[in-house]
Amino acid sequence: MGLLESTIAKVEPQSDEYRQRATAHILNLAIPRWSLGRVFDLAVDLCGITRSMAPPVARKHIVVMSGDHGIVSAGVSEQPQAVTRLVTENFTQGKGSICILAEHAGADLTIVDMGINGDVRHLTDSGKVLDKKVANGTASFTQGPAMTRAQATAAVEAGIEIAEKLAVETDVFGMGEMGIGNTSSSSAIVAVMAGIEDISTVVDRGAGLPLEKLQVKIDAIKSGIELNRPDPDDALDVLGKVGGFEIGGLAGLILGAAAHRKPVVIDGFITTAAALIAHGLCPDAAGYMIQSHGSMERGHPHMLKLLDKKPLFYLDLRLGEGTGAALAMNLIDAAVKVMTRMATFEESNITEEGL
Amino acid sequence: MGLLESTIAKVEPQSDEYRQRATAHILNLAIPRWSLGRVFDLAVDLCGITRSMAPPVARKHIVVMSGDHGIVSAGVSEQPQAVTRLVTENFTQGKGSICILAEHAGADLTIVDMGINGDVRHLTDSGKVLDKKVANGTASFTQGPAMTRAQATAAVEAGIEIAEKLAVETDVFGMGEMGIGNTSSSSAIVAVMAGIEDISTVVDRGAGLPLEKLQVKIDAIKSGIELNRPDPDDALDVLGKVGGFEIGGLAGLILGAAAHRKPVVIDGFITTAAALIAHGLCPDAAGYMIQSHGSMERGHPHMLKLLDKKPLFYLDLRLGEGTGAALAMNLIDAAVKVMTRMATFEESNITEEGL
Questions:
Q1: Which of A141, B73, B110, B288 pairs as cysteine with A224 (C-beta 3.0–4.6 A)?
Q2: Assigned CATH for A3-55+338-354
């Protein structure tokens, strides 16, 4: 049994017992019933995930994975592919948006080369970027599969390895990505997995594609799906045929986090595509996902429906890098504090009848 | 000229110059255009409010005001009036929800007796609660005005005095309230100021009024408005006839914060009613308000429309006390960090054409 299968075998659903205990505790707090709403929902999730009434959340770690996409050659992005490498380099210099917001969140940051099309050995050799490169970018899925099935497995297992390595020092995982063209792969993944016929309903402008070029992107994704015919019931097939290396790595990170009973905070459109792959491989993994924000991309609600997730907030973010996941960390801390520190009716001068 | 008039005279609109400078800076950041969405909108507001490209936000102070409401005698609440005093006492013992979330936000907390119906001198004498009591609760506005016009002015001026006192040590104000029955006053205020005929569209269940008693609340508010006929163009008249002492105090806090060019974070339904009063007294004060969350109360969207505000998040909160304002503080810090620390195109290896 390979690492992927053994990891999936370790993933159990959230603990119903701890969800029930957490719910009972919250209902016994000396305030109007469930009056902190989704903060309490989040607290119940954290208890169910960690099997604890005082979920540990202090040690946060955001993993940002970079990878390139062959479909860029079809004109789906205004940015040249080299931007994936350049922005990843910026991450190592503390310049990326996620560097600022990870520090703000009190989160450690690991940058991973899952498949940048270019040489970043100066960064991996110095330890600033983790080397999990599967290949120098995917092939364009308009002309054949983006990657082989073996590469898809390798990408997911690389993500699992990272989660395994970090799990001993991490309470909460966060996810981010960088990859020019990766909204195209993400749109293809949701189209296939949700069985959406009209591709245009899940394709959007990514980092700022001009409206007049949107049809090019729609056509490229449509033809790629028709050519490759990914099997929606086989998530590795979907990942391999229309996905990306960083998407596979992030799916693996989720599985590894779930196997270790750690919450993993999903960011926006691309990380949610990775969540769809993880969910396809292991439905119980969804219980470990915390959806930070709702993306501006029109395909995102379709993804959330498949995962049965509701974002914590909508801030019109469309930057990626894990910025939304970083912004959610503060709410996770708040959820644990209200769970563990608020007074119950017994501890208070307020009676339940009085509220 | 009294304190109210002199304070209103000091309030200027947000600075257009700083809004424009902030916008230009954000458009020059080496990321896709405006890709942190509402976090950037918030940054522009903070710059326009503080007249600074690096808005000071470190020193946060949440002011929670308590007051009682005579309309409780009409059966509009399940909670007895004594709960206002009991919960206010809990605040001084660190037990209130806002105590936990203010600490989480790194915010100082001031508790104010604006009009608790009962003796809290043991708390005001020891300095744990600020004594600004106008009276022992309002009269029921089903039988006449809730307070005199002089009391309404006194309540607002008390809030101004608190803002004046705290302004030297505060960068960001937050607002909270406690007052059994104060959703009824808040519904009445929005009904009057928005000219809403069908009162039922702005009346909801507050802290958990059973559905079968909602009609009692609707009828009480409706008859109170018909009896008092508050003038929507005279905010002091509205406050006096159907408002509450803590609502008046909070309106004053907003005016004082605005006069000192400090942002003030609005919480939920009741604090937004106070914002309507402040806006009615001084339309430019709205520029200093930051709307934290969208309340569960059905009247809240009507208020936000009058103020032209969009909440930062919706978390199904209905606790009050300033809990939503506290949760927004982290986003304010984040907005300033991205404003001041992200790399511009000049500082980056990315060209604008490359993005």
A1: A141
A2: 1.10.1610.10
Confidence band, pLDDT 50/70/90 cuts, at residue B353? low
| DSSP characters over A245-285 | HHHHHHHHHHHHHHHTT--EEE-SHHHHHHHHHHHHH-GGG
Class at the top of the CATH hierarchy for domain A60-330: alpha beta
Distance CA A288, CA A221 (A): 30
User: What is the overall mean pLDDT for chain A?
Assistant: 96
What average pLDDT does the segment B261-266 reach?
Answer: 98
- Model pLDDT, residue A354: 61
Please count the residue pairs, one from chain A and one from chain B, whose beta carbons lie less than 8 angstroms apart: 143
Check if the beta carbon of residue B33 is closer than 8 Å to that of residue B354.
Answer: no
Q: Give the pLDDT band (50/70/90) at residue B14.
A: very high
Facing residue for A341 by CB, picked from B30, B33, B100: B100
> Which residues of B fall within a CB distance of 8 Å from A343?
90, 95
Q: Are B247 and B146 in contact (CB under 8 A)?
A: no
Q: Is A109 helix (H, G, I), strand (E, B) or coil?
A: strand
Residue A350 and residue B87: Cβ atoms within 8 Å? yes
- pLDDT for residue B348: 80
CB contact under 8 A, B100 and A338: yes
As a whole-number percent, the residues of chain A with pLDDT over 90 amount to: 93
* pLDDT of res. B96: 87
- Chain centroid to Cα A170, Å, comes to 16
Most B CBs within 10 Å: which of A87, A98, A122, as the mutation test of the B interface? A87
Of A39, A208, A330, the CB nearest to B32: A208
Query: What are the pLDDT digits (tens) for B221-252?
Result: 999 999 999 999 999 999 999 999 999 999 99
Which residue in A has a C-alpha nearest to residue B316's C-alpha?
A: A37
Q: Find out whether B341 and B53 touch, Cβ atoms under 8 Å.
A: no
Q: What ranges do the domains of chain A cover?
A: 3-55+338-354, 60-330
Helices (H), chain B: 3-10, 16-27, 37-50, 82-92, 97-105, 121-125, 149-167, 182-193, 214-228, 235-242, 245-259, 269-281, 300-307, 323-341
Which residues have a Cβ under 8 Å from the Cβ of B130 and sit 6 or more positions away?
A: B110, B111, B112, B113, B124, B162
Q: Which residues pair with B172 in a beta bridge?
A: B60
Task: Kindly list the residues from chain B whose CB atom is less than 8 angstroms away from the CB atom of residue A26.
Answer: none
B98, pLDDT greater than 70: yes
Closest by alpha carbon to A154, among A71, A87, A249? A249
Residue B100 C-alpha, separation from nearest chain A C-alpha, in angstroms = 7
Instruction: Quote ipTM for the complex.
Output: 0.96
CA distance linking residue A48 with residue A158, whole number of Å: 27
Same fold, B3-55+338-354 and B60-330: no
Cβ-Cβ contacts under 8 Å, B37 against chain A: 296, 315-318
pLDDT mean over A283-293:
98
Among residues A321, A346, A352, A353, the one annotated as catalytic is A321
Residue B89 with chain A: CB contacts under 8 Å? 349
CA distance, residue B213 to nearest chain A CA (Å): 15
CA B38 to chain centroid: 20
The answer to whether residue A12 is catalytic is no
Query: Do residue B89 and residue A349 have CB atoms under 8 angstroms apart?
Result: yes
pLDDT (0 to 100) of residue B133: 98
